[in-house]
């Protein structure tokens, strides 16, 4: 016997890409521009901190996060968003992916206004949002995040019948894959809507530190300025992109005291806390901004490159933040196959990040290109891509 609720899940994006491309010969030296795995160096002292605290591998780690790590995160939130938040309102995560999933397990009610709850997700989106909805028995509602809505989902356009059933709305800002950033007005409108219809906002802000000039405003910052219910917004952050440490598996969720209490309680039973030496390293990494500035500078150079190489392609969007290009093509799969077989450059068809909803798939006519490799490689890859797909 197997559960039905995951039967309709499409294969994950990367196995799907392998099935599309791996039986075909690459047309040149292989260049990966698919996965958003940061490649810039992380601070070299991270490994020293881990070694210094290696004895901690002998202990079960603090489930909620060590007091020192929670203090370092709280200080970062204060510096970054000017929001004072007690460490009891922060939970250390093993990377944001599991947190985005487990927070729904802890906080999604069984019913909302007497009906099956709805979880809103942008479309295209980071795939864990849909699996979280399936796991808690909620209906996932995929809301287009396209050019027409500034590449962010317009939840305010949904009817009251839908909104009254909404338990959780996921928003990704800066957005993967489009690189769009929610401004204060976007957050204000959404928070007002959430107050009216009594749902929570899960703000996936893991790309918040990779921006061009202006630091993106945060959801918790706006909610605090508005004096919204403190349980309304949870923010999710990570060292994966900010500090080039996707393998450290360190992030956090912060929000209202009752939400965090419930997340902590569930995780006391079923969570996988970060090993103690890694919590020590994470604590130091949150406290340092010098490496983050250097990281941003390297991405800024690649954004400039992308603008130079692709700027005149019709429909090209220069990303405001994050590290992806979301490029218009006639068909994402056809373009990925052509690029692979003619040049060896590997990109992701947009439809692997989106779902059919309301009669169409908003990712179908896009490819996602990750700008994570060193600058010269990115330059080479983008030039080949330009010549192959856009002439
Ligand atoms: C939008 C988005 N959210 C969350 C994550 C998860 O990152 P991590 O678990 O490494 O913090 C990713 C990773 O690619 C992402 O793109």
Overview of the molecule:
- This protein is α/β, with parallel strands linked by helices.
- The chain has 14 helices and 12 strands.
- It has helices spanning 13-21, 45-52, 67-81, 96-107, 128-135, 160-163, 184-197, 219-226, 239-242, 257-270, 276-287, 290-310, 332-343, 375-390; strands spanning 31-32, 90-93, 118-123, 139-144, 166-172, 200-204, 233-238, 251-254, 324-328, 345-346, 348-349, 366-370.
- The strands form 3 sheets. It has a 7-stranded mixed beta sheet, sandwiched between helices.
- Strand 3 (118-123), helix 5 and strand 4 form a beta-alpha-beta unit.
- Helix 3 packs parallel to helix 11, helix 4 (96-107) runs parallel beside helix 5 and helix 4 (96-107) packs across helix 10.
- The model has no long low-confidence stretch (mean pLDDT 97).
Brief overview:
The protein is α/β, with parallel strands linked by helices and 391 residues long. The protein has helices at residues 13-21, 45-52, 67-81, 96-107, 128-135, 160-163, 184-197, 219-226, 239-242, 257-270, 276-287, 290-310, 332-343, 375-390; strands at residues 31-32, 90-93, 118-123, 139-144, 166-172, 200-204, 233-238, 251-254, 324-328, 345-346, 348-349, 366-370. It is 40% helix and 14% strand.
Classification by helices and strands: alpha/beta
Q: How many distinct beta strands?
A: 12
Q: Tell me what portion of residues adopts beta-strand conformation.
A: 5-15%
Give a list of the ligands: pyridoxal-5'-phosphate
Major sheet: arrangement of strands: 2-8-7-6-5-3-4
Shape: globular
